[in-house]
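Predicting holo structure, zinc ion bound.
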Amino acid sequence: MMAADLIFHGGPVFGAEGADALTVRCGRIATVGSSAEMLRLKGPETVLVPLHGRAVLPGFFDAHTHFIRVGLEQTFYVELGTTSSLREALERLRSAAASRPEGWVVGRGWDESRWPEKRYLERGDLDRAVPRQPCYAMRVDGHMLAANTLALARCTCPDGEFVDRDLGHLREEAAWELARAARPDPDTLIEAVAAASRHAASLGVTAVADMAGPDDLTAYQTALRRGGLRTRVFLYLPADDLPALSALGMRRGFGSSLLTIQGVKAFADGSIGARTAALGEPYRGETGHGQLLTERTALAQRWRQVIEGGLQLAVHAIGDRAIVEVLAAARLAGVSPLDRHRIEHLELPAAAQLDEVASQGLVASMQPNFLQWSGPGRMYEDRLGRERDARIDPHAWAIERRIPLALGSDGMPMGPLYGIGLALDPPHPPQRLTLTDAVRAYTEGAAYAAFAERELGTIAPGKRADLVVLSGDPARQPWRELYVDLTFLAGERVYLRDDAP
Ligand SMILES: [Zn+2]
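Done. Tokens:
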């Protein structure tokens, strides 16, 4: 009999009916069963983890995030997501500019729907707050930014639907181009990987699907070599990298147990907050329908290249008109359910579109965090009206149709406890998920979406010992009262809450 490295005992094991203990050996789950049985595997070196009734769950797998951005929010960006007014956002930018008098001042995460001013940041605001340095501030959705005059001077995109120089507003490609121009130096990016990893561990996240930016791969590799990467990262690189990946013959699954290339990400439309999500009917009280960023033929062609390259496509589609194009492109490209291609967000599908997502075997990669903008008086209702708001982010309809559902955060903010809380108690009750379905979608479902379900996502012998211990038992205690007490990656403790027992 081989002694265990670790024994968790005395608390419910998620997904293992009746079990209250498990053992870990060599970074993997060895056995699952009763405490009495498991404690027999104790040897002189075994570390015991008494649960005292707390639940142990598979490590959370955030199925859609922007990991380095999450790290930069901890280290580099001026955080604007928690501001309660436009005036406060400007104040934060002003004081950041004063404390680092050279180079870019980059704010992130503002959300005018939370501010009494109820309007976007504008060039004039930023010129007053940050007069001497280039400064931009990205809206929370990442599809729109406001820039000051010095920053706008670096924008090479022509005026038009994505560029409004008077207001200093850049959207979609124009916004991302400026963000690339203001990209932090390589060391800052490497530090951001480590910061994101620490932050993820504190939230119980042991794996992520990362919708990565250009050059992120280099930062990841260096962070991995230096030991700063302690989260399993499954990469979806920008679609522009597809020719390079194909030229190298880089196929899905290339990499290591911590860093894997999965595929590429493409965009069918923008976001509801920036009014760039492509809708069948116009935005409420307006004539605009948003913007389709790719139509079916071009997307189908890209999709075929992805399939030929042995990669996975993750395609961003929020509005119903964008989802129509993605489904048509999938038919044209002849996608197979075996390839598990993913629709990211899938916020406003019609019922018939969901039926087709199911029949084509596509994965629904959804973010319950977005429900923070749904419900009476909130941003989605304002932009879309009550009827469309009531059918946004239809998690329960996806489950009913047996669509593979993978939940994630989009980094808004990162944190499965928060996201699952919204999925369990959505503003529109028909979309409520059961605890089991919600946790599964944030573990097993996300692993499935990254072809990692044999290694990750459930607590079973042979799986990686990526585990999280909550502060209580969600079957007995309201979800919103729970914390993450402990996080383990491959049987190694990567997080311990300060006042955990
Ligand atoms: Zn995203």
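The CA atoms of residues 374 and 380 lie 5 Å apart.
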